[in-house]
Amino acid sequence: ETEVHGTCTKDDGVDCGSTSSSLEVSPIITKLDGVEVGHVQDVILGGKTHQMTTLSMKPQVLEIKHFLTDEECDHVVRLAKKDGMFDSVTNTPTKSGSVKVMDMNQDTALSLREFILTIENSFDIYLDEDDMLKMYSELGMDRNGDTEISREELHGQDPKSVIDWLTDYVDKRPYKKSRMSRQAWLYPSKIHDKILDEIQERVVSLVGLPRILIDKNDEFQVVQYGPKGHYHAHWDSGSWAEKYPCCHHVKSGARCKSCRFMTVLLYLNEVEGGGATAFPIANNETFNENSFRMSGKINLHRHCEDANLVVPAEKGKAIIWYNHHLDPTTGWVGEMDSFTLHGGCGVTSGHKWIANKWILVSDKRDKDLDPNFKPNRA
Ligand SMILES: O=C(O)CCC(=O)C(=O)O
Ligand SMILES: [Fe+2]
């Protein structure tokens, strides 16, 4: 039955709202549909047909080989080198006094894994069991040699000696940090580069999101990993439950969370050895962060091949995924999708170059869509 317009009354409980001419339809956020794993669909971008293959549905990860030509890849690497590459820094947990002892099973002693986790959480240092045994022996910590650190053994140790040992150890072995890479930020609106603009347009056509989201946050992050370079498993975005505002809405330096609805990852070279992108918990039924961290699988030097989804780096390929669910009631972005946990596996030989293109969306829809609200730059 067709509804007859012009008969709206408040009594019907119908929102008479505004007339159609003044009605502003807020843009909504949508996702591409991967259908099922292995599904291949054609996407036409700038007049050229590309094939998009579904690699995973939980989270949805889509792959487009030859998204960039070899020349485009080389060009982006050149632009980044010209701009200058700097060490990547992750949000390092506080080095100040408050170390949270991770006695997971509350038996008042720290197993090797529990001590490793304590160090990971407090210092952003990812050690193996061998590293820990070296520390125990060099500091004489494990007096009875049972590889457990009892409460007495822990309290008998000057915390400063442990911190000094860790600082020295990681200074000599930077690959023990959660991330080891160099990076540059490229802003198409600043550098007016024809090829970068074309790539940007291709991304806009691919994702089908309101283009203002991409125009306002137009940057690409180009990353170079050398031998032993990696990025342990992490989330690109933050949970809505985190109370801090989105980083693209605050002045830099303020405490904030990344709000990255979508990740577009571009592979810019052939890697000689290693360097895949891994999604350790893709397709898991459930996810428990504590037991995952206890398993050590966050470490993508050691556990790359244990990941449920491993995507090899191939020059020109793009993969895309959504770091958040959609909220069907608002048509906007919802809570973060934990299954997007991912990282860059260790590079075993040669270098790896990628570009990250994040599509930033916050829980403040009006700000994101307001052309006059200028975002903060990374
Ligand atoms: O290097 C990769 O494959 C993944 C990089 C990544 O996850 C990131 O830069 O956030
Ligand atoms: Fe990432």
Secondary structure blueprint with pairings:
Elements (H helix, E strand, L loop, with lengths): L39 E6 L2 E10 L2 E5 L5 H14 L2 E2 L21 E2 L1 H12 L5 H11 L9 E2 H5 L3 H14 L6 E2 L1 E5 L1 H4 L2 H14 L3 H6 L3 E6 L4 E5 L25 E8 L5 E2 L2 E3 L9 H7 L13 E3 L6 E5 L1 E4 L4 E5 L5 E3 L2 E3 L2 E9 L4 H5 L9
Antiparallel strand pairs: 1-2, 2-3, 3-15, 4-8, 5-6, 7-10, 8-9, 9-20, 10-18, 11-15, 11-20, 12-19, 13-14, 13-18, 16-17
The structure holds 2-oxoglutaric acid and fe (ii) ion.
Order of helices and strands: EEEHEEHHEHHEEHHHEEEEEHEEEEEEEH
Total DSSP E strands: 20
The structure class reads: alpha+beta
Question: What is CATH's topology name of the largest domain?
Answer: Jelly Rolls
Task: State the share of residues found in helices, binned by percent.
Answer: 10-25%
The residue ranges in which pLDDT falls below 50 over 5 or more consecutive positions are: 1-23
- Our count of helices gives 10
Molecules bound to protein: 2-oxoglutaric acid, fe (ii) ion
The CATH superfamily of the largest domain turns out to be q2cbj1_9rhob like domain
Q: Radius of gyration, Cα only, in angstroms?
A: 24 Å
How far the N terminus sits from the C terminus, by CA atoms, comes to 52 Å
Q: How many domains, as an integer?
A: 2
Spatial sequence of strands, sheet with the most strands: 1-2-3-15-11-20-9-8-4
| Main beta-sheet annotation | 9 strands, antiparallel
Based on CA inertia axes, which overall geometry fits? globular
Architecture (CATH level 2) name of the largest domain: Sandwich
> Could you tell me the mean pLDDT?
90
In the CATH scheme, the class of the largest domain would be Mainly Beta
Q: In percent terms, what proportion of residues is strand? A: 15-25%
